[in-house]
Design goal:
The chain has 57 residues and is α+β, with helices and mostly antiparallel strands. It has helices at residues 2-5, 28-37, 48-54, and strands at 10-15, 22-27. A hairpin with a 6-residue loop joins strand 1 and strand 2 (22-27).
């Protein structure tokens, strides 16, 4: 939310699950590229809602 207020087109996307969570900062275009070109696994950036669902949050 704060990134949008600052005029940034980037947002945080979580990677990894459990206690070792990591986030990356990507634009929507970069996130779409990752989705189309890299295998889906626990090391793959995902939306915050999908990450929460996978972690039972």
């Amino acid at each position: 939310m704060e990134l949008g207020r600052q005029g940034s087109d980037e947002q945080f996307y979580p990677i990894d699950y459990g206690n070792d969570g990591t986030f990356v900062l990507l634009t929507a275009k970069q996130f779409d590229f990752v989705l189309r070109n890299y295998p889906m696994d626990n090391k793959h950036p995902t939306t915050l809602s999908a990450w929460k669902s996978r972690n039972g949050i």
